[in-house]
Design a protein that fits this description.
122 residues; two-stranded parallel ribbon
């Protein structure tokens, strides 16, 4: 599935959302992305990996989106992971939010870890 700013792929009951935009900076863009991701969560995509492979720059509104998504997933009993965060790592670090999220080098590592969670829950 392809959105305006992301590509969506489901792997082993884990939804990988890869942003295709180079920047996530404006509040309008972040609000649009937040709404789209929250719709996915409401439709049952509760194990989610946000992949920042193509994102080259981001600003503080992204942090608001991440917190909103994490909160919604927590309420639904889901889980959030981030992958390929190299270009947003400074933003996460400066805001002291880098410890708030599970961060993986790539989406496959995040999917593998979430699959372990499924095995543990069974």
């Amino acid at each position: 599935m392809r959105g305006h700013d992301f590509i969506l792929k489901v792997v082993s009951n884990v939804t990988v959302l890869r942003f295709t935009t180079e920047g996530i900076v404006s509040r309008i863009q972040v609000n649009r992305l937040t709404d789209a991701i929250c719709e996915l969560i409401d439709s049952g995509h509760t194990y989610l990996v946000l992949d920042f492979k193509y994102v080259h720059h981001a600003s503080s509104p992204l942090l608001v989106m991440l917190m909103a998504v994490a909160s919604k997933l927590q309420k639904k009993g889901g889980k959030l992971a981030l992958s390929r965060t190299d270009t947003i790592s400074e933003l996460l670090s400066v805001s002291k939010m880098d410890d708030e999220f599970e961060i993986y080098p790539g989406p496959q590592e995040a999917v593998d870890q979430m699959r372990l969670t499924f095995c543990y829950l069974k």
